[in-house]
Amino acid sequence: MSDFPSHPYPWQLQEWHQLNQQIAAGKLPHALMFAGAKGIGKRHLAEALAQLLLCLSPIEGTPCGKCRGCMLNRVHNHPDFIVIEPEEGAKGIKVDQVRSLIDDLGKTAQQGGFKVVVLEPAEAMNANAANALLKSLEEPAANTLLVLVCHAPSSVLPTIRSRCQMRLLATPNSEQVIHWLKPLMVGSNIPVEKLMEAAGGAPLTALSYLESDALERRDAWLLNLVRLSTGQISAIEVAAQWQKDDVIALVEWFLVWLHSVIRWQVGAEQLLINQLPQDLRERLMKIPGALLHRYVEKMLVSKRQLLGNSNPNKQLLLEEMLMDWGALLRTAK
User: Fold this and answer.
1) For a 10 Å CB count at each end of the chain, is N or C smaller?
2) What stretch of H or E contains 166?
């Protein structure tokens, strides 16, 4: 895909068509929330929509790529396109960033058309920032669109969610992902199925794994988890190793792995689970589904703590997570 203009990914075409219909009918809301799994292209879709709205001469629902608006977007310098995200080194979106945004939205668009804001991730706003944003959502300026990109909509204030038109973007099916991913894997000896499963079916996450050592790291995490699950190493020893790594990425990987276990329990083919030792697979199959779901919910709470501003003790968090996993396995004996 060319860098500019941005086109929706193949699995986003239906959503893109609906957005174009709203634009043509003059019924585009003042605020949208693109929600869905990480790595499926929500930010990309938001940027494609921004480029379309800021184009002065769109052609059949696509930016022309030649007008002044497109030229400014091509060099990432359009004064009416604002991106709000955590500042470098910060976890959250601060209230000062939102207040500055509100000031910008109160001014006339410099190019005389739309003003478009992409805010990602929406759940990274602290309470003060979210409350400050409410004013813009309650009293939207004309020809202004706010697109909130969100990985966990339940973590966003209900008052924010209720003032946005929600668009739940589904993870694409495996056939779509394979068709898109295979041409990008030329020269790689990694099975596309392994890549997809490791990424939880998220195509952009899978692509990023090709360009890093992420798969090797995940193989090492899985080896430690298997050793823990079979009694070869303790939870404290594993936690001591894991806390030196990217703990947020590790917890996200563990959640993907747990969802693989849940799908495998109900009969879905899961390559990563099928490669585990037989005795461990037998124990995994016997874990009560209700307990497994409760464990996943607790893991999601741990993830929110890591992403928030509470700065939990990572070693203790991992120890508790792994001890709970050991207790869960004991229920399957």
Assistant:
1) C
2) strand 165-168
What separation in angstroms does the CA of 153 have from each of 110, 237, 255, 257? 32, 35, 17, 22
DSSP string for residues in 31-93: EEEEE--TTSSHHHHHHHHHHHHH-SS-BTTB--S-SHHHHHHHTT--TTEEEE-PPTT-SSB
pLDDT at 168 over 80: yes
Q: Report the share of the chain in percent with pLDDT over 70.
A: 98
124 and 18 belong to one structural domain: yes
- The domain that contains 120 carries what CATH number? 3.40.50.300
Q: How far apart are CA 228 and CA 232, in angstroms?
A: 6
Q: Which residues pair with 305 in a beta bridge?
A: none
Which CATH number characterizes residue 322's domain?
1.20.272.10
pLDDT tens-digit map of 215-233: 889 889 999 999 999 999 9
Cis? peptide before 121, omega within 30° of 0: yes
Q: How would you write 87-152 as a 3-class SS string? A: CCCCCCECHHHHHHHHHHHCCCCCCCCCEEEEECCHHHECHHHHHHHHHHHHCCCCCEEEEEEECC
Q: Burial code of 232-250, b = ≥16 C-beta within 10 A, e = fewer?
A: ebebeebbeebbeeebeeb
Closest to 256 (Cα-Cα) out of 270, 241, 277: 270
| DSSP summary character for residue 29 | -
- As a whole number of angstroms, the distance between CA 84 and CA 45 comes to 16
Instruction: With cut-offs at 50, 70 and 90, classify the pLDDT of residue 214.
Output: confident
- Cβ density class 204-221: b for 16+ within 10 Å, e for less: bbbbebeeeebbebbeeb
Q: How close are the terminal C-alpha atoms of the chain, in Å?
A: 51
pTM: 0.84
Torsion of CA 63, 16, 4, 70, to 10 degrees: 30
- pLDDT for the residue 309: 65
Q: Give the end of a domain, one of 168, 196, 226.
A: 168
Summarised one tens digit per residue, pLDDT across range 181-201 is 989 888 888 888 888 888 888
